[in-house]
Every structure is written in C-alpha cells, then in structure tokens.
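Session log. Operator J.P. requested a structure for one protein chain; no other inputs attached. Running the standard single-chain path with token output.
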Amino acid sequence: MKNKNVVLDVNEKPGFFLWLMLSMQHLFSMFGSTVIVPLLVGLSPSIALFASGVGTLLHILITQKKIPAYMGSSFAFIVPMKYLMQTTGYPGIAQGVIAVGLIYLVVALIICFFGLDWIDKILPAVVVGPIVIVIGLSLAGSAANNAMMNNGKYDLKFVFIALITLLLAISFNIYLKGFLGFMPILLAIVCGYVISIFMGEVNLNTISNAPWFALPKFEIPFVSYNVHLEWGAILAIAPIAFVTITEHLGHIMVLNELTGRNYFKNPGLSRTLSGDGMASIFAGLVGGPAVTSYGENIGVMAITKIHSVYVLIGAAIFAIVFSFVNKLNVIIMQMPLPVIGGISFLLFGTIASSGIKILIENNIDMNIKRNLMIISSILVIGVGGFMLKIGTLPLNGLAIATLLGIILNLILPKENK
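Structure written below.
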C-alpha cells in the first residue's frame, strides 16, 4: 500500500545526500537517551550505541523491512542494572538482558499458536488513544528536567537554550521548504548545539583531547568473562520484560496510526516482538543494556512525515560506525541537556497529539460515561507516576494504565451512557 499523506512512505528511498541527513537526524534524536542509560548504570556508552545499531538492523530484518522503528537503550531496567553492577557486575546483567529477549520470543511463540484476533477486542480506539497520549506525556517530566536543571539546580541559561531550540524546531518545521524542510529536527539540534557552545555549555577541551578512534569495550561471555548462572540477576531483570512488552504494544499502536497500517497483523505482532527480543539478546552478548523501540524516533517521523525504513537503516549504520569513531562519539556525548530537552518537548508532544488524533478520527463520544471512565483512568494513572511493586516486579504507570484500560473496556457495559 501507499500512504499518500506522507512525504516518504515506509518502503520509499530518499536521494543519497538527503538519506544521509535524514539518518543523522534520527541518530541525534535518539543519541542522548541511548547513551544516558549506560552512563547511569556504569556500562560503556559506545557499546550501547553499537548494540542499538545492530539491534535496529536485526529488528528491521526480522520484521521484513515493514516497520520503521529504532531500538535504543531501555530506561525500564536502570534500577536493577545499577544494583547488579555493584554485586555480580556485567556478567549478571548480561544474563538478565538475554532472559528479557527470551521472554519476548516466548510471548511471540504463544501469539503464533493462538493468533491475535483478541487484539482488536482488547485494544479498541477508546483504549489505544489515551495509551498513546500517556506514552507521550509520561516522558514530559524528563524533557522538562533536561530543559531546566543543571546538576540538580534550576538554571535560566538552560531554560533559554531549551526554549530557543524548541522555537527553532517549530519555525524550521513550519517555514522551511524543499531540501531543508525535510530535517527541521536536525537543524534545530545543530543550532542549539552552536548556541550552547557560545554560552559555555560545551566542553571543547574534552572534544579536542579525545582520540579519533577507540574500540568499544565489548563484554562477550566465555571471552571477556567466565559464565556462572546468576538466578538472582535473572529474576531481578527478566520480569520487567512484561512492562516493556506493554510499551512495545503502545509504540506499535502509534506507528499504526502514523503509517496507516496494521502492524499487529502484517508483519504480525509475533515478528515485532521477536525483533525486539533478538535485539536484546544481541545486546546482552556484547556488553550492552536491554533495548526497546524509541519514542524519540517515532516523534521525528510524525513531525517530518518521512517514514522510510531505509532512513532508520542509515541511522543504525551511523550508530555502529560512531561507536568506533571516538571523536564523533564525544562530540555527540557533549550534547547539552537543554538542547535535548527543547527538542523532546516537540517530539514527545507530537506522540501525545497522535493519541488525540486517534480519539477524534474514531469519533469517540466523551458524553458516554463508559468512554469517559476508561479514558480518564488511563490518563491520570499513566501520567501521574503511579507505580505498583509486586516483589521484584515494579509496574510503572503506563503498564498499569494499559492493563486497567483493557480490563475496563472488557467489563463495562457498552450501552452505558
């Protein structure tokens, strides 16, 4: 099929130079989040970048080049990974990350046997719309924090840089035409970076002193370390896979809406889950954190209306290359937080707006009490930071809101007004 409402559809290729720029735009958009996870945990950022690139290529291959998605480091596993780094070290984390991938594969196998007709019944528009809104808005806090806080203190300079970056992104998106009109996010990031340099927020000495090339610090089982089964590490990390599977469903919903397709049916949820699972298994085998599909890149696609899977392939290749080119790696790692925050305002807001669009296009009547109860519950629980801890399994607001929305949709009478 061909989506006539986009600039480049999923299977369309841009020209070579435009292709490079669009792929760089996606790389810049996901870079900050992908490397901040290993930095917080104590892993190698270059390995995380390498794993995200290869994981994305694996996902695209398994999903038959039908889904434009980028795999980046997952925030859901930060707490147990930080704990395990102080106890088992990376060997324990690796076993947990590989277990996460295996859980994805098992769920995919179950779907192969039982089908997915149940998805349309448990995930109608009245549930999907607010879930997509929550996916965007639940990330708003991190965007605002990056835009305001400098080492834990409110910084007006950060606020200025963030707002200028946001306004530039909006202006470029509205007013630029032709070639430059395809990459408003990349241009805004570059401009924000330059402004940050003049305002003293980029350490140029770190960049100039960094070596040009460096081999990523791979952690390969039976090569870098001896393997001893760590059940505690596996039990600490693996159950969170059920949370990220829920997030995966949400991202697929957003992509369905953006591209005008039904990826639950073609190439099928079993393939999308298998792609995520294999990406995490690979990450665990080379020294990286568990990965998941990234909302930042979905936001870029929503803004630019460029959904080409080849652009995501280019971004993945750049990520792999940059993991070895240390100088470029350091340049991007010096990306000021307010620049990331300013761009995130737009990217995450666009995702939330896609959820509103789902409700409008499906004529969801808010005067019907049933609809109002479902949507209201999902929004406040999902955005409010609500959490349920059951043993070692923490369920975040998005997971709980999704489960609650599904349950309410199944049990509330449809004739209720």
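Operator note: The mean pLDDT is 86.
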